[in-house]
Design a protein that fits this description.
Elements: H1 2-15, H2 21-30, H3 35-42, H4 46-54, H5 63-77, E1 96-97, E2 107-109, E3 131-132, E4 180-185, E5 191-195, E6 199-202, H6 208-217, E7 236-239, H7 241-246, H8 255-260, H9 268-275, E8 279-280, E9 290-296, E10 299-306, H10 315-318, H11 326-339, H12 347-358, E11 362-364, E12 375-377, E13 425-427, H13 432-435, E14 439-445, H14 448-453, E15 458-459, E16 464-467, E17 477-482, E18 490-493, E19 496-499, E20 519-523, H15 524-532, E21 541-544, E22 548-549, H16 553-569, H17 578-585, H18 588-591, H19 593-612, H20 638-663, E23 669-671, E24 674-679, E25 709-716, H21 717-726
Parallel strand pairs: 4-7, 7-10
Antiparallel strand pairs: 1-3, 2-6, 4-5, 5-6, 8-9, 9-10, 11-12, 13-23, 14-24, 14-25, 15-22, 16-21, 17-20, 17-21, 18-19, 23-24
Helix pairs in contact: 1-5, 3-4, 11-19, 12-19, 15-20, 16-19
Length: 750
């Protein structure tokens, strides 16, 4: 009988009217639920729930039934307020209530004014953090501090529950004020720390050592670890120009200091730190300074400083973030910190640190007979020790590496000596038929290298050299093999052989798209793709890694979720129809320029983090054949970088071949993750073969998810021909300039 009742309940729920989108959002927020929690419970994506709450999409069975039941239960707990008790108007003053927990530093809230949902940084789950409440029902009396509204606040205060992924301290009372603070000085000399969530703290510290001590003892800043055996994120303090002056630091660095990347060791602030027994890392006091004391047991005492006016926030990756007022800067960095991780340096450094944070090198053993635990290797990580530079395969390392020190000084390694897996830079002259079309349309793969890392099996330990091996597509490594016999005029697409015009296609085996002429070193995904195209491969030798795993999966998932969540806040959801997606992408950055900065930083974190896997020498008196600093890291792994780039290039070529086999259309130019086609219209939909809203299986698909494509730009065919004629370059790579048509030497693609 209970099964019948359940069936009846489900039938009623499937036809029940859902509340309007705004009410769905209110009910979720009232119960303190995040979008992520609802999505996990219903086994859907975060963007799906976001679409239901924005009204852009409607749930469908079977998820609709469960969603309706959830909303019905929440409506019983939180009935809609009568009209006469509605929330105050956006310009009304809003009180800020505090918990009874003592707070050492005096807290302030920013001035009133309505903020967009993405701007709001206050989480209702955190009962410790000061929360701005809009017309909340009367609660039981409890001790509260009276807060003062900053007279110079530059951003409206938060009034609503934060959307999922925004930072506001969280449930850990140690970090109730969020991961970071921007320290600024008011006109009257008051020093303030602008935290996430609109919270402002008074800073009593009168020196850098005192500021570090205050941060660790009273500010309650930081973030919990991302993985079980990992470490909590150290608090980040951002110093504005006025704060630098207040604490005796230069507002800008001299040319000599910029070159050195630090202020001199004899600077008075460094002497103050030394007297207070604080230490600096080997990088010294630079744009991203780390100030610490040796750990006592599991307790860390470390603060990260970020100094924007010393170019800590590179404009290529952070845009104008360094010029933002303190509250806005706290918001930008706070969203990034909550969705990616607290910045540890440049986006490249942070991308690499994120890999380690998600796969800590060690973990605690089970307690022995005395109850003591020791550290042991954490399976699936790269370990705590770097690979000996002399144990790297010669084919995988860049020129100047110690393992190549015996090569003649001016020797140039060819394909049979060097693994050269890089992104595409290929173009060709247009055909007569293409010249009759009117437009050149560029499409760009979203987070292409992140998508290439997803599910990729990479080596975790040292490589083993083997002669004449049988190729194994599941075994990561580098293979010396002749792929010159692969003919793109006849390849397998799926299970069928197809005839193509190979002269109009780039070779998948070289970054310049040239057909190989003999044996060369390739990463596993490249050789596997040759087999997929229907051709036999016979490696001559290989360096393979028997200890392997999907090391980058967690890294990819976190960066993907961060990107999708931020794009959803900008109005670009993952479930949009092609036409709606193109419309949503049009001018999306202008909807919230601060969040647009975050999307750029996330994408830079992907590319920079992968680039750091093969970091080259950075001055410091290095000479070819000598080791450099990066080689001492376990994360110096050029083989992993090569595998990701290889897989990314193969993914793109596979889509190009599918598209050519189905439509007869061939790319005119490719630059990294941007592909240009000649088309009769200005939109990607003028050449992408959608049928009833569905894309070509295995081909290009419009969307915001990593691996899907967006519109990069459109120019006329006449523009392309005129540019090539002007520079006398019939194969000038038009993909480099398709975005805005301006011809420069700079890659302006995303």
């Amino acid at each position: 009988m209970s099964e019948l009742f359940d069936a009846v309940d489900a039938l009623v729920a499937s036809r029940a009217a859902l509340p309007p989108p705004a009410e769905r959002k209110r009910l979720r927020s009232a119960h303190g639920l995040t979008i992520d929690e609802v999505a996990t419970a219903l086994k859907v994506r975060r963007a799906t729930v976001s679409g239901w709450e924005s009204g852009k999409t409607e749930p469908r069975p079977p998820e609709r039934d469960a969603y309706a039941r959830l909303l019905d239960k929440l409506a019983e707990l939180y009935p809609a307020a009568p009209a006469d008790t509605a929330s105050p108007a956006p310009d009304a003053a809003v009180p800020a209530t505090f918990t009874a927990a003592p707070v050492q530093a005096e807290a302030r809230t920013l001035s009133t004014g309505e903020a967009s949902e993405a701007a709001v940084m206050t989480a209702t789950e955190n009962t410790q953090t000061p929360v701005l409440v809009a017309a909340a029902p009367a609660a039981a009396p409890r001790p509260a501090r009276t807060t003062r509204t900053s007279s110079t606040s530059r951003r409206p205060g938060a009034k609503k529950a934060a959307p999922a992924g925004t930072p506001a301290g969280g449930s850990d009372p140690r970090f109730e004020n969020g991961p970071l603070a921007v320290v600024d000085v008011e006109d009257d000399g008051t020093v303030l720390a602008y935290c996430t969530g609109g919270l402002v703290l008074d800073v009593p510290a009168k020196s850098i050592p005192a500021l570090v001590d205050w941060t660790l003892r009273e500010a309650k800043l930081g973030a919990p670890k991302l993985a079980g055996p990992g470490k909590d994120a150290d608090p980040l303090i951002v110093l504005t120009e006025s704060a630098l002056e207040r604490y005796g630091l230069p507002v800008t660095l001299t040319e000599e200091e910029k070159h050195a990347g630090r202020i001199p060791e004899g600077h008075k602030v460094i002497k103050q730190l030394a007297r207070a027994e604080w230490k600096l890392t080997k990088r010294g006091f630079g744009p991203w300074a780390r100030i610490y004391r040796p750990a006592q047991g599991s307790e860390r005492a470390c603060v990260q400083l970020c100094i924007p006016s010393w170019n800590a926030l590179d404009t290529r990756h952070w845009g104008e973030a360094g010029q933002l007022p303190p509250a806005e800067l706290a918001r930008v960095l706070g969203v990034y910190a909550s969705r990616v991780m607290t910045p540890r340096g440049s986006t490249a450094v942070t991308g690499l640190e994120l890999m380690t944070a998600l796969h800590p090198p060690t973990r605690a053993t089970a307690p022995d007979e005395n109850g003591k635990r020791t550290g042991e290797h954490n399976p699936g990580s790269l370990g705590k020790d770097a690979i000996d530079p002399m144990n790297f395969p010669p084919c995988e390392v860049p020129d100047g590496h110690p393992v190549l020190k015996d090569l003649p000084r001016f020797h140039v390694r060819g394909p049979a000596e060097k693994l050269f897996e890089e992104a595409y830079d290929w173009a060709r002259p247009m055909t007569d038929a293409e010249c009759t079309l009117r437009h050149l349309v560029g499409i760009d793969v979203n987070m292409a290298f992140a998508a290439g890392a997803n599910g990729l099996n990479v080596g975790l330990g040292e490589a083993t050299h083997v002669k004449a091996p049988a190729f194994d597509p599941k075994l990561p490594g580098s293979w010396l093999v002749d792929l010159s016999h692969v003919d793109l005029s006849r390849v397998k697409v799926g299970k069928e052989w197809v005839e193509l015009d190979g002269s109009l296609l780039p070779s998948p085996f070289t970054p310049k798209g040239e057909r190989p002429t003999g044996p060369a070193w390739y990463a596993t995904p490249t050789v596997a793709y040759a087999v997929e195209l229907g051709y036999e491969v016979r490696p001559l030798e290989a360096w393979v890694r028997y200890e392997n795993g999907r090391y980058l999966d967690g890294w990819y998932n976190r960066l993907r979720d961060a990107y999708l969540a931020t794009m959803a806040d900008l109005g670009v959801d993952a479930d949009l129809a092609p036409e709606d997606f193109l419309a949503a992408m049009d001018g999306y950055k202008a909807r919230d320029p601060e969040l647009a900065i975050v999307t750029t930083a996330i994408k830079a974190t992907v590319k920079g983090g992968l680039g750091k896997l093969r970091e080259r020498p950075r001055g410091e008196g290095w000479r070819p054949g000598e080791p450099w600093r990066a080689l001492s890291r376990p994360t110096w792994r050029p083989d992993i970088r090569a595998a990701v780039i290889s897989r990314t290039r193969m993914n793109l070529h596979r889509k190009i071949v599918k598209h050519a086999a189905f439509t007869g259309q061939y790319p005119v130019a490719i630059l990294s993750d941007c592909v240009v086609y000649a088309a009769g219209g200005e939109s990607p939909l003028d050449f992408l073969p959608y049928r009833e809203g569905k894309p070509l299986p295995g081909g290009f698909k419009l969307g915001i998810n990593p691996g899907l494509v967006k519109h990069e730009g459109t120019q006329t065919v006449l523009w392309g021909e005129e540019v090539r004629e002007r520079f006398n370059a019939p194969e000038l790579n038009l993909a480099r300039y398709i975005k805005d048509g301006t011809v420069t030497d700079i890659d302006n693609g995303e």
